[in-house]
Amino acid sequence: MSTHTNMHRALAALAVLLVATGCSAASGAANRATEWPAYGNDPGASRWSPLHQIDRSNVSRLHVAWTYRTGEVVTGTMRHVPPGLEATPILVDNTLYFDTPYGRVIALDPERGTAKWTFDPKIDIHAGYGDFTSRGVSTWLDTGASPSSPCRRRIYVATIDARLIALDGASGKPCAAFGSGGTVDLRKGVRNGIHDFAEYEETSPPAVVNGLVIVGSGVADNVRRTAPSGVVRAFDARTGALRWSWDPIPQDPSDPAYATWQGPRAHETGAANAWSVITADSARDLVFVPTGSASPDYFGGERLGQNLYANSVVAIRASTGKVVWHFQVVHHDLWDYDVPAPPTLMTVHRDGRDIPAVVVTTKIGHVFILNRETGEPLFPVEERPVPASDVPGEKAWPTQPFPTLPAPLVPQRVTPDDVYGVTEADRKFCREQLASLRSEGVFTPPSVKGTLVIPGNVGGSNWGGVAVDQARGLIIAPANNLPAVMHLVPRDEYQAVRDTTSSGELAPQEGTAYAMWRGFFLSPSRIPCIKPPWGTLTAIDAATGQVRWKVPLGGPVPWAKPGTLPPDAGSPNLGGAMVTAGGLVFIGATFDSHFRAFDVETGKLLWTADLPVAGKATPMTYRAANGKQYVVITAGGQPKTGLPLGDYVIAYSVE
């Protein structure tokens, strides 16, 4: 290996440290080369590792080093949906930590995959949760405590039933001085109250910055206008005391955003919550909050106006909870177009300057690259006219923001020529369905007649978000090409539709004039009615906004008849990518239960492995004390699809 190559890798590692964490050059670089201390490896969610023991020359020799099973496979006995293992483990202090959908936290030996300890919060597994998962844990080192003190190293888990729990990293025992016996009840102090467990959940790991633990929430879509508020709260990492709270639906008339909520009941609206991962820049004392749609998703007649700070990335001063800047990706959302992914921090090198940036991906398939300090776009954003609503009481916002660069990750319109089917009967069905719907491209408003929503409510981009290769200036983005169909249901017709509908999702949207029904744009064969690929992986040059490469992600969906779909059809995917200094992009995420590695420079597929069930999670990597690099992914299957579920944590290494 040449000295030049070693220097290049060292500089790349240093750059990511300075950019994503805001730390000095002396900030534990040795640990960063071995550990994976946060959900996205750093507080800025780069999902980049400086490790290069596994590289393009030897990735084909990857094999399973160990497998751990949690014992939590449940099919058919739960209310609503079964649990789904989607966690990305973290590695600190020579221990691998992750959580399960049941809120159990498990500490593993990173070389052997054997359990060191487990903690069980004993949630009510039969309570009925809307999105029964949890995607990881977080950690904090109390440098003010002596090395032998209990809870010097803390592991934080936000459980599905909305508890924030602090555990001793060495023993797994609750930290008694945190909250009440180690727990803060996140269901207390939520505006509009919480009716049941399905209404208010925690599915993402907390952000930890400058001695604070910061949490958002998952709020049920489309149940009622006065859904629980999407309050974001910061707690003292040592004591659990509340330090600040911020409601994305302004309650203070002096807030400039207050006037963007119009109507006598607009400020009673709930949600606009941050269910995805909150990221942080500790040096700038900033957290970046990705917010979703206000309640309910598909009818906004009770919350007219632009609706700031919903559907935005909001930069908040970590120490005070005050808004520094905000950027809204959808005005007056009517499509469930949450900001679903962690706002990802990187440095953009342009015209001899280094610009601190945040990358924001959306369900629309838009990628916004913003100045991290000001929120200003690095590429022009145009407000373009979009279709008007034809629903009484509704008033869609007349324009929406479109980035001029990068180009959308997925199509934003379906024409009759775009219709796809594996049989003529399928194609006929899809054409007839398209003809019956209101379909004017992206941002076509919901209607009673029925609307084709493209992209659909899973994206475009979803919670997998992006990974960044800082050294190469690349943004790696998985995406879905999966339109949806939705109908507004007049209130007096809701019960009849409820009694007769057996497919899709029907929700009441209580407190408004309309319920809603939605489903995906599928043929009778359960194949998308739009031409493939249905899943893609794209590399974008952050400096120019141009696509470097784009490839299908995934093979034919498992339920398709063999031989009926092209091998490069791509798969709908949920889960993120990871990039390493070895020149590799690792990703699971697809329905076809494969784990893949691509060449970061070209997008060429270099390695694939069969998983026992789908790996609907983001992988991570570390170098253990034995000097060996491991790549780890959890495989829990795809709930809601009828495909097999699992409970696997799988580590790979090269012999």
What does this structure look like?
This protein is mostly beta strands and 655 residues long. It is 7% helix and 32% strand. The protein is built from 4 helices and 42 strands. Strands 1-36-37-38-39 form a 5-stranded mixed β-sheet, with no helix packed on it. Strands 2-42-41-40 form a 4-stranded antiparallel β-sheet, with no helix packed on it. The longest helix is centred in the N-terminal third of the chain and has 19 residues, at 3-21. The chain is globular, with a radius of gyration of 23 Å.
User: What does the main sheet amount to?
Assistant: 5 strands, mixed
Overall shape: it is globular
Question: What amount of the residues lies in strands?
Answer: 25-35%
**What is the topology, as strand order, of the major beta sheet?**
1-36-37-38-39
> Approximately how much helix is present in the residues?
under 10%
Short description:
The chain is mainly β and 655 residues long. It contains 4 helices and 42 strands.
Q: Which labels suit this protein?
A:
42 strands; 4-stranded antiparallel sheet; single chain; 655 residues; mainly beta
